[in-house]
Amino acid sequence: MAGTGSRGRAERRGAGELESAVLAALWATERPLTPAEIQQDIGGALAYNTVHTILKRLYDKGLVLRDADGRRGAYRPAKNAAELTAQAMHAALDRGPDPIAALRHFVTGLSTEEERALRALLAEEGL
């Protein structure tokens, strides 16, 4: 069988990694993209049907929107990368039994630059 050698298996990516690659391609542009454009952007070796399946999954999760401005089959992100990351962080805190302890561990792992930015944001909000 063609394409089933060790090279093909080594390049195989999981659904989460593919979803991230598709979202990154959408975030990198200001306009909606078609599955073919996304396929080309993330690597033409990926099957068109795979890209379309990933887009459907992202759409079902509410992470991408279908373009209603006439570009049939074009997609755009529902949220920017920062908004999606913040949403994931809130969800992670909500799942744990002790969100304050989780925050404490998170903050102790920040770089100096991230800590400085967090302190500035808290100061802006008067916290």
Automatic annotation (TrEMBL):
State the superkingdom. Answer: Bacteria
Keywords (A to Z) from UniProt: DNA-binding, Transcription, Transcription regulation
A GO BP term here is: negative regulation of DNA-templated transcription
Instruction: List all membrane-crossing ranges.
Output: none
GO molecular function of the protein, one example?
DNA binding
Q: Which InterPro entries match?
A: ArsR-like_HTH (IPR011991), BlaI_family (IPR005650), WH-like_DNA-bd_sf (IPR036388), WH_DNA-bd_sf (IPR036390)
Gene3D superfamilies reported for this sequence = 6.10.140.850, Winged helix-like DNA-binding domain superfamily/Winged helix DNA-binding domain (1.10.10.10)
- Family named by the database record: Belongs to the BlaI transcriptional regulatory family.
What is the name of the protein in this document?
Putative transcriptional regulator
The record, for SUPFAM superfamilies, names: Winged helix' DNA-binding domain
